[in-house]
Design brief:
The protein is mainly alpha-helical. The chain contains seven helices and no strands.
């Protein structure tokens, strides 16, 4: 019983990390997109995230079904059936190994994604400055580095905001 409790504690902590990573970072991703594109597409990101979530749940169910079938899992409408050891091993693999692999992958991706409250505040302030008509050439080095790190795009190559830095030809000819 003690080992079960210890396993369940690690399981729950890992599972919450797995869910925490994407759902905590998701609300900030539209701001990164806005910085790069100049458009607010938060609704599009929300719909895509929901779609991907629903599809992944469906695919996970199908994959689990195929894995159980491969391991000779037996179904019975009449009651309990003794499962072969291969089916029991596959269930253990799916519940621990499959979920454990996803937890490790989530932690690896989160470790490479440098979005935090501090870096988001820097990005947000720069986004507001640009939206209020600030010039890209007036950017401080720290916000520039943070924006490049979070977006993966060179600050000087963000075309959307460059158009405001160039002089407008107002003459009609």
């Amino acid at each position: 019983m003690i080992w079960l409790v210890i396993f369940m504690i690690f399981w729950e902590v890992g599972l919450y990390i797995l869910y925490f990573a994407p759902w905590n970072a998701f609300p900030f991703i539209p701001d990164l997109d806005t910085l790069v594109t100049g458009r607010n597409r938060a609704g599009l990101f929300a719909s895509v995230m929901t779609f991907v979530n629903q599809i992944s749940v469906g695919v996970a169910g199908v994959v689990a079904g195929y894995l159980l079938d491969f391991a000779h899992f037996r179904e019975s409408a009449s009651g309990a059936v003794v499962q072969p050891q291969s089916a029991i091993n596959m269930i253990i693999f799916i519940v621990s190994g499959g979920v454990g692999l996803m937890i490790v992958l989530a932690m690896l991706f989160v470790g490479r994604f440098h979005l935090s409250k501090k870096t988001f505040m820097v990005l947000s302030a720069e986004l507001v400055r640009l939206q209020k008509g600030g010039s890209m050439s007036d950017v401080d080095p720290h916000p520039k580095a943070v924006c490049e790190d979070l977006t993966g795009v060179k600050y000087d190559s963000i075309e959307v905001w460059k158009k405001d830095d160039q002089p407008q030809n107002k003459s009609r000819g």
